[in-house]
Amino acid sequence: MHAYNIGRKLQGEKLTNFVAMIAATGGLLFGYDTGIISSALLQIREEFHLSTIGSEIVTSAIIFGALLGCLMAGTLSDRFGRRRTVMVAAFLFIVGTFVAAFATNVEVLSAARLVLGLAIGAASQIVPIYIAEMSPANKRGRLVVAFQLAVVSGVTISFLVGYFLQNYSWRIMLGIGMLPAVILFLGMAFLPNSPRWLALKGNKEEALEVLKLLRDNDTAAENELKSILSNHDTQGSWSELKKPWVRPAVVASVGIALLCQLTGINAVLYYAPTIFSDAGFGQSSALLTSVVVGFAMVCATLFGGWAVDSWGRRSLMLRMIPGAVIALIILGAMFVFHLSTGWGTWVTVAALIAYTVFNTGSLSVAVWLVGAEVYPLSARGKGMSLVAASHWGADLVISLTTLSMVQMLGAGITFWSFAFINAASIWFVWRYVPETKGQSLEELEQHLRDGTFAPVNRD
Prior knowledge:
Blueprint: H1 5-9, H2 12-23, H3 25-47, H4 52-80, H5 82-101, H6 106-134, H7 140-164, H8 170-175, H9 178-188, H10 195-200, H11 204-214, H12 218-230, H13 247-262, H14 265-278, H15 283-310, H16 313-336, H17 343-373, H18 380-409, H19 411-432, H20 441-450
């Protein structure tokens, strides 16, 4: 019961916010460790004499690890609990960061980034679920988006570190990630288990105790537990996701996870300094551009955190993604017609920032939130593993091919290709993604069971 020590000092909304804040530190590590490579790669390429393919392997090792990590985390979180799985991820962050910072060759560095990837994959699978299962329905959107806010904040911090430490060793850049990893590990040790996981394991008394800590009054906690138990089912296997009544949740969540990456946002994060440096920008200017991109992502995510509970998840995506299409068309044109110098530099940077805002503020905000919401309790852990695996699988493809695409097709055609995929995502969201705003997780599960889980607003 030591995990409830903080809970007894904090009650209701304060505890819920504190839980989200500590758990979201996993997102900070997620963002920092994926983003710092864009700055460090400029030095690593020289020190280890990396080719284009070598650069892509070093960058992609963390993504391959994330793909493995999220698949394993589903089973771990269902068996041992959400909280313990996050602690395992934090431990892997610590180990991976230490080894990466002291790597003496590219093989050790790639292996360390693979371990970091395992941690990132686990965090991306379980932290959104943990926060969603702890949050009340009317605040679930903004609290889960806190995870994505932490991700983009971590990316932004990595860009700032890369810019200010560009004349120092890349090892320092990587090693800084140790501090938030320790905070996450120690913080999770004192937080409660998910009440929904406890109920699923048959521990009703402890589930009620946690809900009483998280909610403003005992009546609300008791009513929520009744709702959870009314939808209670045994722990499902992977075959649960194949059932026809669960399929709409799989299509909606996996589709968003794939599109979040295939629309190109991480291609910009990983390779923006390299692309802009090769296009004629100085190294310092290229790194500074990435810092501006990072701040744009933070602002867009802050806006998205408000909009998911005000506009709704589906409405936000349908309103924002068209802006990403237009921005990418302009960005591609600047490179195709060789206008990215002189006055065109400012248009290029503005188009890049606009794309970042519209894409990050929509698909990137929604991906972990919708994935954590739409699955029934019996399949939520494995369903979110599938979402995270789809996300990281697509990210692996993008990270392995972006520099090669730029070399073969040019940056302009590459950006236009991403514009086409963004346009296709508008149709997908309109056709397959329902509005989940303001509904409890149990209500969403009931919509799946009775066949009313549909891509329409329920306002």
